[in-house]
């Protein structure tokens, strides 16, 4: 039986991606930039409801330039969601700023507004706040934006995992001053690697996006010779990569439907097992269900590791929940504002189940039967 991945690239059945790439080859727009980049920026902006976007080489580079655009400097405190992938935090260190980790809440699994308030009391000089929409679950943007607006601090939404996720009728990534998306290989749509930065500051979008594109292309001043007044980066997306993105964007809705079906299938077939619970869903929200995640309660007869090992024996990939940043050796020594250690608990008790959109119903059946067997044996 074929190996089952947690989440792997899934190109369109129609071959849209190759059509756009072929067009780039035919017109020799391999690099630099070109029509696919311009169109991908326009098309992604339309999907999420942003005014404009900058296509970049990764979600990480998009976060980095968002921090620069927000004016974060050496020594500045930056509030980062604690339960996330390290790429949320690394760019803060690239700028020699100081991350302060904010615990999650049980309702959203994302940044706790209560812990965020506490953090503002302790660090009134904070320069940016980075909430994350983990696994495509929207963070509590209503409360987070209210608190950050009150303090006049810019918000950078890490929407790397939440393309296709909506909150209160608005796409995630468009609430904060800046929003960041990723097209890395494991994300809901992929360009093999890439990212996008959107700006939501009314009246300032064009100027900010222009600046981001400037930094991303080595900060070359408009002169005939090479003139530089600022440090630049080589962070722009290539025209070939953007072609893959344009094709993938056409199947985004289909992928969201497939991911949501996978989650519903697990809920239906595993929901009765003792001690199991699922990642939270709320009214007025649509999560893209990038990964389907379960929790196994303390009193549950089966442990997360049992599930992962049993699946592994069947050549099926699964993963623990992200390990919180304050528990990472590389970030030891940075402050952490806890909310009852919700993130650490989610990490300890969680399993990310296979969520690959290429799985068949038979694959899902096999996965569920392996998992259910663990309860029968106990
Ligand atoms: C994937 C991811 C990133 C980084 O995106 P890349 O395109 O891989 O650089 C950032 N934050 C989160 C939460 C992610 O999952």
- CATH homologous superfamily grouping of the largest domain: Type I PLP-dependent aspartate aminotransferase-like (Major domain)
Approximate shape: globular
Count of individual helical segments: 12
Strand content: 5-15%
CATH class designation of the largest domain = Alpha Beta
Rg over CA atoms: 21 Å
The CATH architecture of the largest domain comes to 3-Layer(aba) Sandwich
Topology:
Elements: H1 16-26, H2 35-48, E1 53-56, H3 59-69, E2 77-81, H4 90-94, E3 98-102, H5 113-122, E4 128-130, H6 141-151, E5 156-158, E6 166-167, E7 170-171, E8 178-182, E9 195-199, H7 205-216, H8 239-249, H9 252-270, E10 276-278, E11 285-286, E12 292-296, H10 304-313, E13 336-337, H11 342-349, E14 350-353, H12 361-377
Parallel strand pairs: 2-3, 2-4, 3-13, 5-8
Antiparallel strand pairs: 1-9, 6-7, 6-11, 8-9, 10-12, 12-14
Bound molecules: pyridoxal-5'-phosphate (PLP).
Brief summary of the model shown:
By secondary structure, the chain is α/β, with parallel strands linked by helices. It is 37% helix and 13% strand. Strands 1-9-8-5 form a four-stranded mixed beta sheet, with helices on both faces. It has a four-stranded parallel beta sheet with strand order 4-2-3-13. Strands 7-6-11 form a three-stranded antiparallel beta sheet, with no helix packed on it.
Keywords summarizing the entry:
binds pyridoxal-5'-phosphate, four-stranded parallel beta sheet, Aspartate Aminotransferase, domain 1, Aspartate Aminotransferase, domain 2, four-stranded mixed beta sheet, 2 domains, single chain, alpha/beta, globular, 378 residues
